[in-house]
Amino acid sequence: MIIRSANLNVMMRAAQKAGRALVRDFGEIENLQVSTKGPGDFVSNADRKAEKIIREELQKARPDYSLLMEESGAHVGEDKDRQFIVDPLDGTTNFLHGLPHWSISIGFEENGEVLAGCVYDPIKDEMFWAERGKGAYLNDRRIRVSSRNRLDQSIVATGIPHIGRGDDNRGQFIERLNRAMTQTAGVRRWGTASLDLAYVAAGRFDAFWERGLSPWDVAAGIIIVKEAGGILRDGDGKPYRFDAPDILASNERLQSGFQSLIKDKAVTKLSH
């Protein structure tokens, strides 16, 4: 029997409620009013509505906790040591283009450490979740990172810089991408970082890297990867922190070779 904490149950219910609203809006994309946060970075009425639903659900259950939300920012509660970190619609551009690959991501942080997280894909009705010390799950099935130990047999995922984001690092990214293309079984770019991390945890991707992500992009995903037996590092090979410019996720067997592959101007070899 799987026993989840009260906090995680609250998070999952909030994600599912927001997910139902987003699915309804996804069926009426052409009617959505869309404003721009910046070139290539859109925010819709659906996005804001989902965040409102999640905020209300979380504050109703845990009124004292703090919140860090993508659209509305920080909401400091009486309890400053406990915080929900929320991305109400990760993959907004996919959503607005009718691509059925987007998610809701909610992490729970206490005293600076992420203790629980859920990433919900409403279209596929897939709930990835984890709590510290309890393992990682897809719905009610335990998941683990892949066991592959060769980069040339591995599928890796990434995020590609786009207009208004990562303009200064495109050359560096192209160098990394070229190495990945020539030394792995394939590179995927699906546009939803929280699901990329969840897919690493489930063994669907063998590794993932991206630059310039925010806490709400990764808070839930990092605990899910960890509890699935994965490794999270920054670009220098140190344990990942929210303020790191890069995030790298993989299984333990690939970690060293993958780190070398992504490291800037590194001479890389296939991991065996």
Account of the protein in words:
With 272 residues, the protein is α+β, with helices and mostly antiparallel strands. It has two domains: 6-143, Fructose-1,6-Bisphosphatase, subunit A, domain 1 (Fructose-1,6-Bisphosphatase, Chain A, domain 1); 151-262, 3-Layer(aba) Sandwich (D-Maltodextrin-Binding Protein, domain 2). The chain is 33% helix and 29% strand. It has helices spanning 6-26, 45-61, 92-96, 170-183, 193-201, 215-227, 252-262; strands spanning 34-38, 41-44, 65-69, 73-75, 79-90, 103-110, 113-121, 126-131, 135-138, 141-143, 155-158, 186-188, 207-211, 231-233, 246-250. A hairpin with a 2-residue loop joins strand 9 and strand 10 (141-143). Helix 1 runs antiparallel to helix 2 (45-61) and helix 5 (193-201) runs parallel beside helix 6 (215-227). The radius of gyration is 18 Å and the shape is globular. Mean pLDDT is 90; it is low at 266-272.
